[in-house]
């Protein structure tokens, strides 16, 4: 059996599969719990697991975690840790890379980008049927391209990343900085009678459109999938992208392009289950 895991910055989620059949699922807030001990607990519960496949919110190369901004990991060489202690095969890949694998399968294309707007702004790219990874597995880090100066810093150490403007965590930082009620949704900011609220929404919208344009222009996908919590919760954002993406993209790159919203419940988990097919 295969244990698939979505290791995000807020939740750890898992699904246990026997072939295509899902046997069990679960999730836990990852605040303060170690990732390795959490998996070991699952292995005690499900002794029949032969493969562990992880979509991980961080920098991963060849089974080694190189960067983990939001997840506590005591053993970076996690593949070796599990394969040397348990009778399992251990597969791990960046979460957005997993997501785009699942999206490529769903949309049946070899030229696809998945741009997810959640607590971060993440991108997965498949071109010519292969996952784009980069020398240190950092290719496509759209959230950290320079955009404009913010009055606070990003987790990567810079203060001008586009993720500070076009993500859930960035919005939260701006709300705190501007002393705006953190509970206000994007829609409430947009519809508010206060100019300050409308301006924060506009900043978000422009930054997201800019990111969309960069993705289209750099990678020339056949399909651009938008996903993540913010896209799921706010219908208008997707409609706005559809209405305005051409303003931000090289027009030749938009020919034949389809921009769609994800149809998958958990693309990271589904993509993790596909990881073996990469080998
Ligand atoms: Zn950054």
Report on the structure:
This is ROK family protein. It holds the Pfam family ROK. The protein is of the alpha/beta class and 279 residues long. A 5-stranded mixed β-sheet has the order 3-2-1-4-7, sandwiched between helices. The protein has a 5-stranded mixed β-sheet with strand order 10-9-8-11-12, with helices on both faces. A hairpin with a 3-residue loop joins strand 8 and strand 9. Helix 3 packs across helix 9 and helix 6 crosses helix 8. The longest helix is centred in the last third of the chain and has 25 residues. The radius of gyration is 19 Å and the shape is globular. Zinc ion binds next to loops.
Question: Helices and strands in order, then pairings?
Answer:
Layout: E1 2-7, E2 11-18, E3 21-29, H1 35-45, E4 51-56, E5 59-61, E6 64-67, H2 78-85, E7 89-94, H3 95-107, E8 112-117, E9 121-127, E10 130-131, H4 168-178, H5 186-191, H6 195-219, E11 223-227, H7 229-233, H8 235-248, E12 258-261, H9 267-274
Parallel strand pairs: 1-4, 4-7, 8-11, 11-12
Antiparallel strand pairs: 1-2, 2-3, 5-6, 8-9, 9-10
Zinc ion (ZN) binds next to loops.
């Amino acid at each position: 059996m295969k244990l698939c895991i979505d290791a995000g910055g807020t939740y750890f989620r898992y699904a246990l599969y026997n072939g295509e059949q899902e046997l069990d699922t679960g999730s836990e807030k990852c605040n303060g719990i170690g990732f390795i001990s959490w998996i070991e607990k699952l292995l005690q519960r499900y002794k029949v697991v032969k493969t562990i496949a992880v979509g991980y919110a961080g920098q991963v190369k060849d089974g080694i975690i190189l960067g983990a901004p939001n997840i506590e990991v005591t053993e970076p060489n996690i593949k070796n840790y599990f394969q040397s202690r348990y009778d399992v095969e251990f597969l791990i890949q960046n979460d957005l890379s997993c997501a785009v694998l699942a999206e490529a399968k769903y949309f049946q294309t070899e030229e696809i980008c998945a741009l997810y707007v959640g607590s971060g702004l993440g991108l997965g790219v498949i071109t010519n049927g292969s996952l784009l990874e980069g020398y240190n597995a950092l290719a496509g880090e759209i959230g950290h391209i320079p955009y404009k100066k913010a009055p606070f810093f990003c987790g990567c150490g810079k203060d001008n990343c586009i993720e500070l403007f076009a993500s859930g965590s960035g919005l939260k930082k701006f709300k705190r900085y501007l002393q705006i009620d953190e509970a206000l949704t994007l829609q409430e900011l947009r519809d508010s009678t206060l100019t300050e609220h409308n301006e924060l929404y506009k900043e978000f919208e422009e930054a997201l459109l800019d990111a969309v344009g960069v993705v289209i222009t750099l990678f020339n996908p056949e399909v651009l999938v938008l996903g993540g919590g913010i896209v799921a919760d706010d219908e208008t954002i997707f409609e706005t992208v559809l209405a305005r993406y051409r303003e931000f993209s090289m027009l030749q790159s938009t020919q034949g392009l389809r921009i769609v919203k994800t149809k998958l419940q958990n693309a990271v988990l589904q993509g993790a289950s596909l990881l073996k097919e990469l080998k």
